Each structure stands twice: as C-alpha cells, then as structure tokens.
C-alpha cells in the first residue's frame, strides 16, 4: 500500500483561503463586465458583415434600453423559433417564464440589422459565474428564417467570443436541445464541445439538453 500524505488543518485552511480569493477575483471580472452599459464599446471587433447580396450590422444593448418595437420582435422571434423545440421535451413551453428569463436585469442583447434597418437576428447573453468559472453564457441565438445560411449566426457567435476574450471570461457556454440537430451541428462546427458540467443520461433520468462550451485560449487567471 502506498503512503498517504496527511494534510494538516493549517494547510486545509490555507487552501480554502486561496480558493476564496480566486472566487472573489473571478466574480470581480464578471462584475466589471456587467457594469458596462455597452460591452462592445471598448472591444476591437468588426461589427459589420457584407456579402454580395447580404449585409448586417451588430449592436449591443441591455434589455431595458431596447426600443419597444425591437423588444416585442425579440420575444416574438423567440417563440416562433423555439416553442416547438420546448414542446418536444418534458420542459414544455411556458411563455411567462421565458419572458422573465429574457427580461432579467443581467440580460444583454446583440441585435443584427440590415443596412436599411431591418431586424435580422438577436443573441441573448450574460456575463455570469458558472460554478467557479467566469463565463459568457449565450442563452439564445435566433435568426429570422430569410437571413439563415448566410453566415450571420457564425458572425454573431464570433462577436460573442470576442467579448469573452476581451472581458477575460474563461469560456463561452450555451445550452442546446439534443433534438435540435441543426443547432448542435452548427455549434460543434464552430468549435463547441460538451462541457464538463453537461449532465449525463442514466437509467433513471434522460436529459433533453446538453451544455456546450468553447474555452478562451487567451484566458488569464485573475490575480489573487
């Protein structure tokens, strides 16, 4: 039998203090990002995509700063695009709960518009702590049907990842339904893999979703 090293009470207390310092430093990063009225203000990233027959410009806003027409459009597009997905699993669709989630104080939105102002798609995201990790969590990435398969989803995902890098979040995360095969294919083609926190099916419980993530290769652990 191998020798087991005993950890003294002093060492355990020191380790706990170190973990607490790391957690506080990580939360400070998230707080800094949340405090920005427009997180894109200081980020060096292209916000305009232009193809032969398609163009889009991306802006960022807190939910409370969206104009009423855009806010209504966001909620309507969300239901149009995902209600059926929810109804196919045991979660079901609850419009009231979904609206509460999307209008949360921490909700931020990327809005993509054409050069003539037509709304093309949106992403609901937040800076948050996921267990002990500082993350940018993409809650939604929804595109109007006529604007799909033109590269807009990839472009908006790239903007989110630029925010992840700039604000030194450890990774970009999202949740996707297992039966959303186009969505799973899209995210995995863009480098997203099952996260360590994604639940695994058991004999007693089958999950209708999985959690994907993409690590920030430029992440610098916050100083403690």
Automatic annotation (TrEMBL):
It catalyses: N-terminal L-seryl-[histone H2A] + acetyl-CoA = N-terminal N(alpha)-acetyl-L-seryl-[histone H2A] + CoA + H(+); N-terminal L-seryl-[histone H4] + acetyl-CoA = N-terminal N(alpha)-acetyl-L-seryl-[histone H4] + CoA + H(+). This is N-alpha-acetyltransferase 40. It is an enzyme of class 2 (transferase). It holds the Pfam family Acetyltransf_1. The keyword Transferase applies. One of its GO terms (cellular component) is cytoplasm. PROSITE patterns: GNAT. It is found in: Cytoplasm; Nucleus. InterPro entries: Acyl_CoA_acyltransferase, GNAT_dom, NAA40. GO terms for molecular function: histone H2A acetyltransferase activity; histone H4 acetyltransferase activity; protein N-terminal-serine acetyltransferase activity. Keywords: Acyltransferase, Cytoplasm, Nucleus, Transferase. The gene is LOC113203152. Belongs to the acetyltransferase family. NAA40 subfamily. PANTHER family: N-ALPHA-ACETYLTRANSFERASE 40. Its EC number is 2.3.1.257. Residues 64-215 form the N-acetyltransferase domain. SUPFAM superfamilies: Acyl-CoA N-acyltransferases (Nat).
């Amino acid at each position: 039998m191998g020798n087991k090293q005993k950890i003294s009470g002093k060492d355990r207390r020191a380790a706990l203090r170190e973990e607490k310092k790391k957690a506080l430093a990580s939360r400070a990063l998230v707080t800094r990002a949340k405090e920005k009225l427009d997180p894109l203000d200081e980020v060096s990233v292209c916000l305009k995509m232009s193809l032969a027959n398609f163009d889009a410009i991306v802006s960022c806003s807190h939910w409370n700063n969206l104009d009423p027409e855009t806010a209504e459009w966001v909620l309507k597009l969300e239901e149009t695009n995902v209600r059926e997905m929810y109804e196919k699993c045991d979660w079901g669709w609850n419009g009231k709960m979904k609206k509460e989630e999307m209008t949360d104080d921490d909700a931020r939105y990327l809005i993509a518009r054409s050069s003539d102002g037509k709304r093309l798609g949106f992403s609901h995201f937040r800076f948050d702590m996921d267990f002990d990790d500082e993350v940018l969590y993409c809650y939604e990435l929804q595109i109007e049907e006529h604007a799909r398969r033109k590269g807009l989803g990839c472009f908006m995902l790239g903007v989110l990842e630029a925010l992840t890098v700039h604000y030194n979040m450890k990774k970009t995360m999202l949740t996707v339904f297992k039966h959303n095969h186009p969505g799973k294919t899209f995210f995995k083609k863009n480098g997203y893999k099952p996260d360590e926190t994604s639940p695994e099916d058991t004999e007693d419980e089958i999950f209708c979703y999985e959690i994907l993530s993409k690590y920030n290769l430029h992440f610098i652990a916050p100083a403690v």
